[in-house]
Amino acid sequence: TAWPNPELQISSSTVVSGRDNPPGPIYNWGPQLTFPLPILGQISARRTAALRALEAADVNVLSTLWDRGSDIKDQMVVRAFAAEHVAEIERNLQELAKIADIVQTRATAGANSRYDVLRVSTTEGTFRAGLISATVERNQAEARLVALLSVPSMTTAPIERAGLAAFDGRLDEAALVALALQRRPDLELARRQAIASDATAARLHRENVPVPSVSVGTYHTYDTPSVSFQAALSFTLPVFDLNRGPIGRAQQEAAGNRAQGEALETRIRAEVEGAWRARTLAAKALEDFRRLGLANSEELLERATVSY
């Protein structure tokens, strides 16, 4: 509420000496009601400041939800790829077990040396140690994900790669930068906080304008009974307190929020551009692996199978 509360005052007086000079009543009393009237722009300034603060609070909630959602998505990706890592090592161990059987059989027949058996055994031990490490990583990621979701009945979160949402944005660096600058709530929060601080400074400036107060009341006397009506108009004189401290603080907060917004904008651009470059390099590496690595691996596997 932008309007201040009225003030009710009840006063009384009693003559203790000189009651006959001049003659008059011994006992007097009267109620008085005072209404401050912030009609010189204070009401609109208070309302504007309150609305700007509310808008900043709304975006603050959205920013908090966005942070939590980002953390959950990150942990989902970590858990999914950790699970994929575990599955890959388990497949390798299965293949390695087949190789170990072949090498052991050939070593028993004298076709391979004991060194080949030890080498395969050592490789298997390395893979099993890696499996334990990958399993721990997967379980830790799942525990962090369950903690972020904060659902009492949920104790596991078996997220796999197939359960991850596909990217549905435009594959254009400039478009992605523009989209991030438009939709990032932390950037919008810094902007709205600067606007709210400016509105607070404007309200404090407006509060320096004297606020008139209208007082109305009655005055009752006894001994010589009488009833009088009283009215008064008063002004606060802003001589000593001009809100310099609060105004300066609000202005500095606005400047700090603007600086934070500029820094966030620069960081967002760098994050999107860096992610785009990393994606481009990863796509190229994947294509090279599919074109060269897989073909060579298939040929090597075929040769090794024929040799053994």
Give the arrangement of secondary structure elements:
Elements: E1 7-14, E2 27-36, H1 42-108, H2 114-149, H3 173-183, H4 185-207, E3 212-221, E4 226-235, H5 244-307
Antiparallel strand pairs: 1-2, 2-3, 3-4
Give me the side-by-side strand order of the main sheet. 1-2-3-4
How much strand? 5-15%
Distance between the termini: 88 Å
Helicity, in percent?
A: 55-70%
Question: Which quaternary structure do these chains form?
Answer: single chain
Describe the fold and architecture:
This protein is 65% helix and 12% strand. It is of the alpha+beta class and 308 residues long. Strands 1-2-3-4 form a four-stranded antiparallel β-sheet, with no helix packed on it. The longest helix has 67 residues, at 42-108.
Give me a quick take on this structure.
The chain contains five helices and four strands. The protein has 308 residues and is α+β, with helices and mostly antiparallel strands.
Short descriptors:
308 residues; alpha+beta; 4 strands; 12% strand
